[in-house]
Amino acid sequence: MALHVLIDEHRGAFEYDWRTRFHLPLSSLPTSMDWGEAYRLTLALAGDPSSHVSASVSGWKYALSAESIVLRDLYDLQHQSKTTKKPKPYPRPWDTATQAIGKGTSMTPEEYHALRTRLARDN
Question: How much is the average pLDDT of 71-100?
Fold first, then answer.
């Protein structure tokens, strides 16, 4: 994927990381920095899970340092060893929310039936 397309798709993350890590505005491209250097810096950002660029490109909800990932794994292992039940794991930014339709949601029964009717009609 071309760098300019990646920047357009994840502009906020690039602007944040460029300012905080390189102390340059993203608008400094290509006057203060050539596209080759920008590409190499983007590769470095993409490989660092604590960068907003990496989180955004990966589809994570937020950036997370490598140390924090390890601590979450240790937390989960500690809690698994202390119980016979399977404990709920500590949240990760790549977790997807479960989608429940019907019972237990904020939908009214009428909204649920209308949704089911629409889904059946579309298929």
Answer: 84
Tens-digit pLDDT profile for residues 59-78 = 999 999 999 999 999 999 99
Q: Which residues of 32-53 are buried (b: 16+ CB within 10 A; e: fewer)?
A: eeeeeebeebbeebeebbbbbb
Q: How far is CA 67 from CA 6, 43, 60, 63, in A?
A: 27, 20, 17, 12
Question: Which DSSP string corresponds to 14-64?
Answer: HHHHHHHHHS--GGGTTTTS-HHHHHHHHHHHHT-TTSHHHHHHHT-SS--
pTM: 0.68
